[in-house]
Design goal:
Length: 672
């Protein structure tokens, strides 16, 4: 396995980084809620005014067409979870608005179709919205007017892969809409229904397809995957008119770059990052359709050097500690994740920040005293390496001393001994990379993969990540909400495939476990091994080793497979202790040298611990790599090694917990 290098890539990073939109998802987007309530009021007023004969039919048609248009903006923000940081609020408000737009598909079904548009924008083969943005000019009005029926056929073709609940919700909504239409016909109210909904909705749909699909995307040759800055355009000029009229879709490019930004913040986001977008040659046209390259735009605006700010990428740096060192660290927060897992966040003091920096995928050793017993566990860090936040997730194990303590006793303010981060599960990141990574994780195996996934998406703005994540049920899925948030934020670059073993309502094709038959199926269909650059495997031993073997059978280079094991391995020695010999061990730890006589059968670590209690270790099973040291003289054999990669072995590193001397004199250096 490789390590993450803190290379000096700042200039390149600044060129390629996706600028920070600077607009977090609000607790509650009041403008979005406001236009929803305003649209409901307008619909109610114009409908009752028509029914009571106060206004002519065409007034109601125009008002209710505007309602359809406005309601779609509410729906659009709901499917991107930008109405509220409280997830269910988006689902509720989105559904309430959706009935005014296209009540023949469930909101989640539309969400799926829309996210496919984000992933594949402008790609004729895969983008559902090219139906409305491409085509002969004379066809366009017909395409715009029938776009939801195309969505329906697009959805039908993928029905088997969709969740049962989503399909069922679509069935209910479609049935209810058809029933409403039939009742209106049978009761002689078809004209009223047409004026109040059918005609306005058709007009609204035409404008939506025109303004959301055609105006931002037509005529651009790039796709989201080939160049996300040039698969969608911004239309500049006359913002005073077009921004309120189009509800900010004149800056649709901002939406494709930052899908979680609420619609009313597009222009602000554009202004904040304008120079960064121009550096990436973003597609721009004037409101009259004149295409502008960045220079022309600068001239056009006469605002060179006035707006925008590039936010540089902060490459994660590794711990400054030479080996894992224990420090007493206060707990900042203890939060439940699922019914049987807990997140622990640490408050690392300022003076130890450098020692506790970590690379994505690394882990820490946690030590505490439980009833007089010194308990030592190893946990992967489950935060992106770009944040100064150290947190771990602890899965409760029935009867588990430490996990039970975390679930029932540990609280903010308590002190735990925490080792500085170690481990090599990861890969060097580079903002210029354009890679496809795949994570195969099960249960708590998500923790290091989540750290890698988040860091990759933040740093490598052209790379993609596919996560196949196995769990029992939706409810037992750790970080489910975080993953949904990330999917929404990185809609075009992150795909999460949930495999559930105990959820009878889950998509049939994804019911079960991540085993060899399922992987064989993926690798022959959607996850083409030759299109994946690196694989990250973490979960129970059986899953991880099966996955590794299956990948190799499919021709994946073992060097591209990163494997992290922390449970389920044997610690039995392969050979009886009598095969080992005694030796004189000299080791360097934290700058000082010790010499100790190592008894036959003892490991290098066991000997070192006789004279230095601070010798680093955690799992004692060859999996975590915490006990790593460099062999300087002599020779050893290792019982097992699940932690060191080829490069580290070639460089002379050993796992001291697994190493037994085969020479009389052995010298190792923990600081190297
Ligand atoms: S202590 Fe975990 S590999 Fe040695």
């Amino acid at each position: 396995m490789s390590t993450v290098d803190a290379v000096d890539t700042a200039p390149a990073a600044e060129r390629h980084a996706l600028p920070d939109p600077g607009e977090p998802v609000p607790k509650l987007a009041l403008p979005t809620l406001g236009i929803y309530l305003g649209a409901v009021a307008a619909f109610a007023a114009s409908t009752s005014a028509f029914i009571t004969g106060v206004v002519p039919f065409w007034v109601t048609i125009l008002v209710n067409a505007a309602v359809t248009f406005v309601m779609f903006t509410v729906v659009h923000d709901a499917v991107h979870y930008s109405i509220s940081s409280t997830r269910w609020v988006n689902g509720l408000v989105g559904r309430l608005a959706w009935v005014f737009v296209v009540p023949i598909l469930a909101l989640p079904a539309f969400g799926f179709i829309h996210i496919e548009h984000h992933r594949h924008a402008n790609d004729d083969a895969n983008d559902p919205d090219t139906f409305a943005s491409h085509g002969k000019t004379w066809q366009l009005p017909f395409r715009w007017a029938t776009v939801e029926y195309f969505y329906g056929s697009y959805y039908l073709r993928r029905l088997r892969s969709r969740p049962v609940a989503e399909v069922a919700e679509t069935g209910v909504l479609l049935t209810a809409s058809l029933a409403g239409l039939i009742i209106a016909i049978l009761t002689g109210n078809l004209w009223t229904l047409a004026v109040v909904f059918l005609i306005p909705q058709r007009i609204g749909i035409v404008f939506l397809a025109w303004w959301f699909d055609w105006l931002p995307h037509h005529g651009l040759e790039d796709t989201q995957r080939s160049n996300r800055y040039r698969a969608t355009r911004a239309r500049v000029g006359m913002e005073w008119l077009f921004t309120p009229l189009m509800l900010s879709q004149n800056y649709h490019l901002v939406h494709h770059l930052h899908p979680s930004v609420p619609f009313y913040r597009y222009v602000k986001t554009w202004k904040r990052n304008e120079e960064a977008y121009l550096e990436r040659e973003a597609a721009i046209s004037t409101v009259f359709g004149q295409q502008l390259n960045p220079e022309e735009f600068r001239e056009w605006k006469e605002l060179n050097n006035r707006l925008g700010r590039v936010v540089p990428v902060h490459m994660p740096a590794r711990s400054s500690a030479t080996h894992s060192k224990l420090h007493r660290i206060p707990v900042a927060a203890v939060d439940p994740i699922t019914a049987d897992s807990t997140m622990v966040t640490f408050a690392v003091p300022e003076e130890l920040r450098d020692e506790f920096r970590f690379a994505p995928g690394q882990h820490v050793t946690v030590v505490t005293d439980l009833g007089g017993v010194n308990v030592r566990r190893n946990y992967s860090i489950c935060a992106p390496a770009t944040r100064a936040q150290l947190r771990i997730a602890v899965k409760h194990i029935p009867g588990g001393a430490f996990s039970g303590f975390v679930a029932n006793t540990l609280k903010a303010g308590d002190i735990l001994e925490l080792g500085t981060p170690t481990g090599t599960f990861g890969t060097p990141l580079d903002p210029l990379n354009r890679k496809h990574y795949v994570g195969l994780a099960a249960g708590s195996g998500i923790t290091p993969v989540l750290s890698i996934l988040e860091t990759v998406l933040e740093i490598e703005t052209e790379s993609e990540f596919t996560l196949v994540y196995g769990n029992h049920t939706k409810e037992s899925t750790m970080f489910r909400i975080d993953l949904e948030r990330l999917e929404s934020r990185y809609a075009d670059r992150l795909e999460v495939v949930h495999v559930l073993s105990a959820d009878p309502l889950h998509t049939p094709e994804l019911r079960g476990i991540i085993d060899a038959p399922r992987l064989n199926n993926y690798l022959s269909t959607t996850l083409k091994p030759d299109q994946v650059d690196e694989w990250f495997l973490c979960g129970p031993l059986g899953m991880s080793t099966t996955a590794r073997d299956t990948l190799i059978e499919h021709g994946v280079d073992p060097d591209r497979i990163h494997l992290e094991l922390f449970t389920g391995f044997t610690t039995e020695k392969k050979k009886p202790p009598t095969d080992y010999q005694g030796a004189t061990l000299t080791f360097t730890l934290s700058g000082s040298e010790n010499t100790v006589e190592l008894a036959a059968g003892d490991s290098v670590l066991e000997a070192a611990l006789q004279v230095r209690k601070d010798a680093p270790y955690s799992c004692m099973g060859g999996a975590c790599g915490t006990c790593k040291a460099k062999l300087l003289t002599g020779d050893v054999v290792m019982d097992q090694n699940f932690a060191l990669g080829r490069a580290e072995l070639d460089a002379g590193y050993i796992l001291t917990c697994q190493s037994h001397p085969t020479t009389d004199q052995v010298t190792v250096d923990y600081d190297a």
